[in-house]
Amino acid sequence: MKFCLYLFCIVCFCLKLEDSNAQNNNLCKYVNTFIGTKKMGHTFPGACVPFGMVQLSPDTDTLPYLINGKYNADVYRYCAGYQYDDKSIIGFSHTHFSGTGHSDLGDFLLMPSTGAVHLNPGIAGLKGSGYRSAFKHENEKTQPGYYSVLLDDHRIQAELTASERVGFHRYTFPKSDSAHIVLDLGYGLYNYPDKSVWCVARIENDTLITGYKQCVGWARTRTLYFAMVLSKPMRSFGSNNPAKKEVYKGFWRKFDQSTNFPDLAGRDLKLYMDFKTEAQESIQIKFAISAVSIDGALMNLSAEIPHFNFEKTKQEALNKWEKELSKVNIEADEEVKTNFYTAMYHAFISPNIFMDVDQQYKGLDYRTHRAENFTNYSTFSLWDTYRALHPLFNIIQIEKNKNMVQSMMAHYHQSALHMLPIWSHFGNDNWCMSGYHATSVIADAIVKNGTLMDAKNALDACVRTAEKSDYEGIGDYMRLGYVPMEASRVSVSNTLEYAYDDWCIAQLARKANDTLVYNRFMNRSKNYTHVFDTKSGFVKAKNARGEFTKQFDALSTSNQGLIEGNAWNYSFFVPQDPDHLIQLMGGKKKFNSKLDSLFNMYLPGKYFAETEDITREGIIGTYVHGNEPAHHVPYLYNFSGEAFKTQAILRKIMSNQYRASADGLGGNDDCGQMSAWYIFSALGFYPFAPASNTYQLGSPVVQSAIIHLENGKQFKILVENQSAKNIYVKSVYLNGQLMRGTNISHQDIMQGGTLKFIMDEKPFK
Q1: How many domains does the chain have?
Q2: Dihedral of alpha carbons 736, 740, 743, 748, sign
Q3: For the residues 242-257, what does the mean pLDDT come to?
């Protein structure tokens, strides 16, 4: 009887999901590209394709990184270039990060205008002071792969779309004898004097401009080439002649380089192109980039967008997004669908393809390489994305994640320091944040999908990175079992994160059948105990003599040896060994009490007032969801006998920290990590410790879901009696069998099947 009932439920479920699929064949309509952090402005609403090299977007101001030689804190609001509260747009640049806590890029700014020629953006709110223009949000239109806005001051309709390596602009002008398009080659995000090292532009003819820019910044050495094609010949052109500012002017001074001179160069080069336009006349621009050469940019342009059919490219971009979003079909209420598919959109913006269409790319060694049998990627925000984004890829983007791991291995082989990436972009490592989390991503990929690559070579790269003794206290860590406070200002974070990464290396060693490395790194993975003070119940900084600091404040994020978090959050960072952590904190009862306090106590504002990455909106109690170190913590109750509390707090986090509004995220999305956390949690399971083979169960907010796996199978999720009140899990069935415990294995998912949650309004203890 029970079996028949189960079959009936499955049939009904399949019919429901088929109906859901029919309704969800336009999933892009649920994506809200404005959802981000309103205060910090870490989202860009522009046009890109999944994992594309180009992220074409409006930028709304040009605040300098330095004022009078000191850091300008307001620049942080422009990490992605776009700030929702601003009233004007200064132009449309071609490269952006999605939700990072630091910035770079913003390459090749284009801006259409009419009237007098301006080669600077001018002052916000002062019409006519520059080429910037006022705009209104009601005149913005977006969908994945497309952005449109009316530039009020010039009455120009600006539209953007893109392919992987080419930005496509369409500017519809009013009738004008003085229409212009400005190209600012010296512009960039987080700008400061001398960030732009050199710019070159060559006007090949009246519709083609080529060149490159060299700059420093977060990426220490970066060169990017371009090819720009106009649909309408320019009448004339000019520049700001930046060579006048050079100490040595050379004999180029024989020429007037400010007007109609075709061979331009300088540190802060700005060009303008003049046109005569009729009413509602459109000028289209295709702008291709390459990290290899001008020929590479021209090749990318002709290969990806050989025509001037803007609508065709726009539809192709939309189709690419629809294909990626369709990897998971859900049935849920409208707000959950918006949050879910916006999260999917954010999760698939980066990492970014970093090679030309002929597979050539600029390596970490400044040489040109060809990616043989893989796609080369960049933008690895690994301190963030190892937690949930790459584990998500290990389910629904396996082939791409394989290529990302191969890109990390190429990075390792090209590195003069012989290290895997820490935080890399555009052929550079910017060395941001702590840990060596490429080891987690690599181990997770091989442990879960073991046939992807040579485990032995990957293990060698991980071990060599983990034994780089002159990097961030690793030498002391190997000698003492912890990073002393004298060696690093983030000594506690480093110790905790190294210990977790070492556990990942041990799992990889086990996969590679290397017992010696497995034992060595399993021993290292216990080093977190050396910074855990059992008297206070918190992790603390310790000096080289083995003495804990006396200047301790568990609520503070400053001078505690921690990065972007306080001891309340970091003391729970032992995803590799939660059972022993519970013992260190005095057993399950005391542990649960402390975990309760984390989520229920109040964190005074003074403790995060000077911390850019944390705002009140991203905090629940003292738990900081707006930053990453504690993303696994809500699932810890699963290990301490009170899984119902995990279910309750997950619902609270998903409700409070993810909303369908411009300030809908409680913190930086950090290249998709915040979004990947939501995707997993909304579906009802989470990769608590990447490089393990299991996921912890939670409290799903979808009614049903189908995950379309790359092996052709489907993993289905059915949630019975799910509602805003029924947040507790009464029972879980996998393929009709009642599950014991709170986890599900990777193999259970990848072989396909049905996971069924029965929900209730009462907690089950």
Answers
A1: 3
A2: negative
A3: 81
